[in-house]
Amino acid sequence: MVVMQVSSHLPGCQARGDRSYRSLLALIIVIVVGALLAGWLTLRYLSGRLLDGTSELLALGAVSAVQKLDVLVGERFGDLQLMSGNVASRSIDPHILNGYFRKVQAAYPLYAWLGKADRTGRIIGSSDGRHLGSDAADAAWYRAARDRGAFAVQDAAPSLQMDGAMAVIFSAPVWTDGGMFDGVIVAQVAVWALEDAVAQVAVGLQAQLGSGYRVEWQIVKRGGDVISDSILREEGRANLLQLGVLSARLVESIASGSVQEYHPRRHTEVITGYAQSRAGQEAGGPGWAVLIRVDRNEAIEPIRRVLLFLAIGGGAVLLPLVGLLLWSTYRLTDEWRLSVQRNDALLGLVEAARYLTSEGKTDTLLQSLTEIGVRLTGARYGAMGVFDESGDRLTRFLTFGMNADEEASIGALPDGHGVLGYL
């Protein structure tokens, strides 16, 4: 009677199968990571394109706004030329002057105050009938028109005639028929008229960009002082150059453009379009700049929202497919592993049969069968016991896979009365 015992571990074919399975799993991971990376790069590209388009649109909006301001200044220049040459404006009669200025104001409501100062600087007529007789000789608008002898513009500043309200003041000299200086015509335009011009552009931008954007705009003087602010209303209380606003620095030297920058007052990243007004600079001012901006996050929110929907939809389709692929790969690998094991077993049986038919020595044959059994089962150790004819005692006990120290650690070899005898 022959009894064989083996102590198993991972077969060589199983190790090869596991390596193949890990390779396939790594390939699947690479494909998924590649898809995620491609999605991220697509997001970067589309976000960049969207930001570029928004920047260009804001820059064009800023240019359109300053063009409106330039037209406003140019029209005031034409109005004052007409008024200074009008017969009524040459009068020194307060009633005639007051009536004339009221008619002009009714025809052009953007004029908050109209008046005339004589050659000494004394106000002799106004649209509201106030300030008659007051001295304006030291007023900047009076001195600019008188000294220049031509149309002049005073940048936005508090107006005495408008009770301290912010106004842009246009003035032009009046001449006698003999060419003598005869006084100054003054027209004051409230800042809200400038705001209306820029706000119209902002409304158009809002319609193009969509309701998800909040369009903010500012009118800024040379030097960075804010004339008008659509959101924070910090007119006269904020200087953008002192705050370090990049667009305010750029617009001092570049006619128009756009920039992505940090908003120091709202503490967020924004996209700003800017443009510089040129009208009236030859007349001493005003040199305004318009800044139009939107939050950067609002600009890329549409593409983020679309990509989120795509990611949810793609995940709902991709994840089950990946799971199915992993399961299929595992099943195929497992079947391949079993196939290899069966093939190895068949080859082992063929080899065992060859030994049985060719080997004449019993000990060599038994030792070879033990070795074949270890290889077929993928065991680490193997042993074979041969009982005598009575089946009570072992006559031989052969091992394979143990060195001398391991065999010595076993002690006395089995005699057939233990587990082996039971088997």
Please explain how this structure is put together.
- Helix content is 50%, strand content 22%.
- It has 423 residues and is of the alpha+beta class.
- A 5-stranded antiparallel beta sheet has the order 3-2-6-5-4, with helices on both faces. A 5-stranded antiparallel beta sheet has the order 8-7-11-10-9.
- Helix 1 (12-85) packs antiparallel against helix 4 (191-209) and helix 6 (296-358) packs antiparallel against helix 7 (362-377).
- The longest helix has 74 residues, at 12-85.
- Residues 1-13 have low confidence and may be disordered.
Q: Output the radius of gyration.
A: 48 Å
What proportion of the residues form beta strands (DSSP E)? 15-25%
Average pLDDT over all residues: 80
- The helix content, as a percent range, equals 40-55%
Outline type: rod-shaped
Measure the end-to-end span: 11 Å
Largest sheet: 5 strands, antiparallel
The strand order across the widest sheet is 3-2-6-5-4
Count helical runs.
9
The stretches of 5 or more residues where confidence is low (pLDDT under 50) are: 1-13
Number of E-type strands: 13
Structural class, judged by helices and strands?
Answer: alpha+beta
Output the helix-strand order: EHHEEHEEEHEEHEEEHHEEHH
